[in-house]
Each structure stands twice: as structure tokens, then as C-alpha cells.
Amino acid sequence: SIRWRGRVRADSTGVHTFTVRSDDGARLWVAGARLVDEWHDMRPADHSGTIFLEAGKPVEIWLEYFERSVTAQCRLFWTPPDGAMAIVPHRNLYTR
């Protein structure tokens, strides 16, 4: 298992959808709100949650993941207001 912690900064104000694509367990918190809680063995799947973010304001984010067997897969996407789903850009992620 692994836990990634840091901050995420939105480019636009509004409701953002965060999606974790993983096999096996994943949990995601953004600004203290648990958006994904799928802590069990599973085939690769997408799990999403939404939160309102203000442009330019970094908020805490953490992602936990566990792999039960051979193949590990965990990706973090977001969909900004009026945008398309994409992997969260490196420029929007910060260490603590």
C-alpha cells in the first residue's frame, strides 16, 4: 500500500470532479472531504467524487492505494468546471 499527500491548486473556481482509476483499493480526500472510499479488491474501475474549489487556493489532497496481487494501477484524474477529464497536471500538485 501507499499514501500520497500534498496540495492541489485549481485553475478555475467551481465544482471539480476527481476520479481515481485503480484496481484494488483506493481512497481520496480533497480539502478534508472524502471523495472516494473503495477499499476492497476489485478489477480496474473509475470512482469519482465532486468538490467546490476556488481558483489559485491550494488545498490538501491525499490518496491511499493498495494492491492485492501482481498488477498495480492507480491514476488520479480531474474534470474542472466546463472542462474535460484529464490526469491532474503536475503544475497543480505541490508537496506539503
Question: Helices and strands in order, then pairings?
Answer:
Elements: E1 2-8, E2 14-22, E3 26-30, E4 33-38, E5 45-53, E6 59-65, E7 74-79, E8 86-87, E9 93-94
Commentary on this structure:
This protein has 96 residues and is mainly beta. It has no helices and nine strands. The protein has strands spanning 2-8, 14-22, 26-30, 33-38, 45-53, 59-65, 74-79, 86-87, 93-94. A five-stranded antiparallel beta sheet has the order 4-3-6-1-9, with no helix packed on it. A four-stranded antiparallel beta sheet has the order 5-2-7-8, with no helix packed on it. The model has no long low-confidence stretch (mean pLDDT 93).
Please state the structural category. mainly beta
> Could you name the ranges where pLDDT drops below 50 across 5 or more consecutive residues?
none
pLDDT averaged residue by residue: 93
As a whole number of angstroms, the C-alpha radius of gyration is 13 Å
Count of DSSP H/I helices: 0
Helix percent reads under 10%
Strand content: over 45%
| Morphology call | globular
What series of H and E elements makes up the topology? EEEEEEEEE
Task: Kindly report the oligomeric state of this protein.
Answer: single chain
Q: What is the end-to-end distance?
A: 20 Å
Major beta sheet summary: 5 strands, antiparallel
Strand order of the largest sheet: 4-3-6-1-9
Strand tally is 9
